[in-house]
Design brief:
Thiol Ester Dehydrase, Chain A; six-stranded antiparallel β-sheet; ACOT13; 170 residues; 4 helices; Thioesterase domain-containing protein; PAAI_dom; globular; alpha+beta; 6 strands; hydrolase
Length: 170
């Protein structure tokens, strides 16, 4: 189809495609449109633009140093062998850890970035959601260490991870 970026304008073709979409495809399209809307609006912030929009994960503070995150799973997050793609699980873990720092230290950090992420995949994830329990293990002046356990909706352990983040206090 050879589309030059910024030149595709066949709205009728897009409308025809949308008319044939299944409910699952329409839900995915909604998420992608929200990503595009935010990405081109100039808005940014602690949630970022693309990844946060694609994942649509929720996070709540569990204690002073821990959070619970939920990732709703959509069909396109599965790989060819019928389990949730390892890259989706890794990105979920990375975001859960980064957002845990943001939630546990509101207004105290200017930014944080992943320095190291070690993941042990224990079971192929399936189902409608993944749940991550993330705990801040150590916070220093420039580095933070976190642990994360990801479970499927049946409570089975899917992955266990540790992460080190570089932090910049205000």
């Amino acid at each position: 189809m050879g589309i030059v970026m910024g030149t595709y304008e066949d709205r009728n073709h897009l409308k025809e495609m949308i008319d044939r979409f299944s409910p699952e495809q329409l839900e995915s399209l909604y998420h992608y449109m929200a990503i595009l809307d935010k990405g081109f609006s100039g808005k940014s912030g602690p949630e970022g633009k693309v990844i946060r929009g694609f994942f649509n994960m929720s996070l709540e503070k569990k204690s002073e140093r821990s959070t619970i995150s939920i990732l709703p799973i959509r069909w396109e997050m599965y790989n060819g062998i019928g389990i949730i793609h390892g890259g989706v699980t890794a990105t979920f873990i990375d975001n859960a850890m980064g957002r845990t720092l943001y939630i546990c230290y509101p207004g105290e950090l200017t930014r944080q970035v992943t320095v190291d992420l070690n993941i042990h995949y224990l079971k192929g994830g399936t189902g409608e959601k993944l749940i991550a329990e993330t705990e801040l293990i150590q916070m220093g002046r420039s580095l933070a260490v976190l642990e994360c356990a990801v479970r499927d909706e049946d409570g089975d352990l899917v992955a266990k991870a540790t992460g080190t983040f570089r932090v910049w206090p205000k």
